Structure formats: structure tokens, C-alpha cells
Amino acid sequence: MLHYRTHELNPSSPWVTFIHGAGGSSSIWYKQIREFRKHYNVLLVDLRGHGKSDRGLWEKGDTFADVSREVVEVLDEIGIERTHVIGMSLGTIVAQTIADHFPERIKSLILGGAIIRFDIRTKLLLWMGRMTKRFIPYMLLYQLFAYIIMPLKRHEESRLAFVNEAKKMCQKEFIKWFSLTRLINPYLSRLQVSTTAIPTLFLMGDEDYLFIPPIKEVVRQNEGFEFITIKNSGHVCNIDQPEQFNRFSIDYITKIEQKKAVLPVG
User: Fold this and answer.
1) Dihedral sign from CA coordinates of 167, 168, 170, 175
2) Taking the mean position of all CA atoms in its chain, how far away is CA 84?
3) Three-state secondary structure along 10-28?
4) How many domains are there within the chain?
5) Which of 63, 148, 218, 256 is most deeply packed, by most CB within 10 A?
6) What is the edge-to-edge ordering of all strands in the sheet holding 15-19?
7) Half-sphere exposure of 104 (CA within 13 A, CB side)
8) Residue range of the domain that includes 214
């Protein structure tokens, strides 16, 4: 079972589940917890090999489906039937995978710093990482990726937050997570098709230059998807601009809950 924390407002309040990115932990949501717990029941999960969750859970052939199933096991443990899910970075792939395999459990997706396709620059970066991952210390690779993805001075807080959390991982866990990026584009393309029935908001920093272009394209193709850019923000927009991130997310969840409340019975 993964390590998790809950903040319960009351039994009738909607649940919101937060899923961090690779190298992070549930602690990266420190600028969201205070505001969200005023309105919702909150679940914070540490993915396998991260934060306080167990290491060594990997078996040969494990995929994002196995990672996502562990999050659903936490929902079952707590007794959460349905939840809004907020993901960040690689956590957005886990969130979309849950929506793909367990759509009945998801009320909406809010995908921050979403990854839905790797362009040629990102694929080259990942290829270099795969070629060197077994003999270069993983923290050197992680710090390099962090600087490339979050290069500006105002991204420093979010960059350091992820780097400091990544230090708690081990080389073997990093390699396992890194290996999930192999052949990722076809998988991500299928996810965009399979999850179109689930209300989805993409929240992207306007300086998230590697990942914004494919988001714009997929939103144009799907009426049920929404897209908001957050000014003066990079990849980890929940830390760079938390007030905007919180407001847009809460407004979106409120809208989804209100729609559900007025749907005719039967």
C-alpha cells in the first residue's frame, strides 16, 4: 500500500486526490493544502518509490497501469467511490491512466504541467538519459532535466522543491521510473482518445515551452477539454503561481459539481 495522507472536511464533501510527478512527493502540494481543505476532502498520495512509500515494488514489465492501480487501491482502502484528480508533470500520466482503466472513479481531471506528447527535443533528452542512466549518478541527470525544463530564475523554488525530494529516491527507483518513458508517445496518444468523456482541465505555465504546443493541439480537437495558461509560470505551475493554480482548479471543480447537481435523475 502506498503512503498517503487525508484531510477530511465532512462526509458529504467531494474528494480531491493529488498526484505528484516523478522525483517529487505529496509534499509538493504544500501551497494547495490549506486552500483546498476549506472546500473538499483531500487525499495526498506518495507514488511508489517516492516520499514515504515503499521502495522495491517494481516487477518486470510494470507499466503506468500498475502504478495507477496502486492509487486506486488507496481509494478503496479509504472508501472513496469517486474523486476529482489533480496531477502534476509525470503525475498527469498516472492520473489519465486511472481515468482510462477506472473511469467510473473519476469526476474530473486537472492536469498541471501536463505531459501528453514528447517533441524531438524532449525525446533526445530522454534518449541521452537512458543511455547514461546506469553509470551517471541519477541526481546529476535529474538536476540537468530540472534546469532544462525549469530554466528561469523565477522557477527556482519549484526546481529546488523537486530536486530536494528526488534526493530521497535511490538510483534503482529512478531508473525504473525513467524506463517508463520508453515508447511513451503512442501510449499518450491513446490516452487522449480514451479519456475524452471525462471533464479535463489543462493548467499550464506560459513558460512551459516544452509541453504547451501539443496541449493546444489536443484541446482544439476535443470539446470536453479546457486549457488555461498561468502567467509568469514554468512547468511546476502549482508552486510558481499557487494562487492562480488554486483559483482556476477550485473554480473548475465547482463548475463540475454544479453540473452534477442539476443533472436530471434517471
Assistant:
1) negative
2) 12
3) CCCCCEEEEECCCCCCHHH
4) 1
5) 218
6) 4-7, 41-45, 15-19, 83-88, 106-112, 200-205, 225-230
7) 2
8) 4-262
